[in-house]
Amino acid sequence: LIACGAVMRPYVEANISHKSHTTIKYFLKMWSSVSETLIFIFLGVATMEGPHSWNWIFVTATVILCLVARVIGVGGLTYVINKFRIVKLTTKDQFIIAYGGLRGAIAFSLGFLLNESFEMRNIFLTAIITVIFFTVFVQGMTIKPLVELLAVKKKQEAKRSINEEIHTQFLDHLLTGIEDICGHYGHHHWKD
């Protein structure tokens, strides 16, 4: 499905209207947010209610191996991508990409779908939940200080100059007036 979507995207976008494209884009964003919210609600319920089987060695090995696999995956893929990029991803960028990933909602869903009769189900779910909590809380809370410590380039939010602000507001009011004259109530009419 992912490969199909990636291949078809340029053809679909070229053959639908701008309104349809915008509608599909925001519908899919909304649907992904709803799905993610439901999975994490389910994760919270399973964490509090589910029978857990704790094995320090298995859980620790799972967390470490997930982190190592993430680093290897990011390193390998960026090595290939850097062959074709003009602006290469630096080692710092690769480290931040590897450090900032792994939330595990899909892994949790797949683990939860394991058959109840599978004897290792509870230990798998416990390890998955631990990985999710580790990546969300430990890595999630330390990513910002780490980015600042490594001085990774961040996207610059450009402030508009006074000239740009005045011209933008002028054009918005002008387009609102044109919409009123034409009798068309669009984006600028409702914005005004």
Automatic annotation (TrEMBL):
<keyword id="KW-0813">Transport</keyword>
<dbReference type="Pfam" id="PF00999">
    <property type="entry name" value="Na_H_Exchanger"/>
</dbReference>
<protein>
    <recommendedName>
        <fullName>Sodium/hydrogen exchanger</fullName>
    </recommendedName>
</protein>
<keyword id="KW-0050">Antiport</keyword>
<keyword id="KW-1133">Transmembrane helix</keyword>
<feature type="transmembrane region" description="Helical">
    <location>
        <begin position="120"/>
        <end position="138"/>
    </location>
</feature>
<dbReference type="InterPro" id="IPR004709">
    <property type="entry name" value="NaH_exchanger"/>
</dbReference>
<keyword id="KW-0406">Ion transport</keyword>
<keyword id="KW-0597">Phosphoprotein</keyword>
<dbReference type="InterPro" id="IPR006153">
    <property type="entry name" value="Cation/H_exchanger_TM"/>
</dbReference>
<keyword id="KW-0325">Glycoprotein</keyword>
<keyword id="KW-0449">Lipoprotein</keyword>
<keyword id="KW-0915">Sodium</keyword>
<keyword id="KW-0832">Ubl conjugation</keyword>
<keyword id="KW-0112">Calmodulin-binding</keyword>
<keyword id="KW-0812">Transmembrane</keyword>
<keyword id="KW-0564">Palmitate</keyword>
<feature type="domain" description="Cation/H+ exchanger transmembrane">
    <location>
        <begin position="3"/>
        <end position="148"/>
    </location>
</feature>
<keyword id="KW-0472">Membrane</keyword>
<keyword id="KW-0739">Sodium transport</keyword>
<comment type="similarity">
    <text>Belongs to the monovalent cation:proton antiporter 1 (CPA1) transporter (TC 2.A.36) family.</text>
</comment>
<dbReference type="InterPro" id="IPR018422">
    <property type="entry name" value="Cation/H_exchanger_CPA1"/>
</dbReference>
<feature type="transmembrane region" description="Helical">
    <location>
        <begin position="26"/>
        <end position="48"/>
    </location>
</feature>
<feature type="transmembrane region" description="Helical">
    <location>
        <begin position="94"/>
        <end position="114"/>
    </location>
</feature>
<feature type="transmembrane region" description="Helical">
    <location>
        <begin position="54"/>
        <end position="82"/>
    </location>
</feature>
<dbReference type="InterPro" id="IPR001970">
    <property type="entry name" value="NHE-1-like"/>
</dbReference>
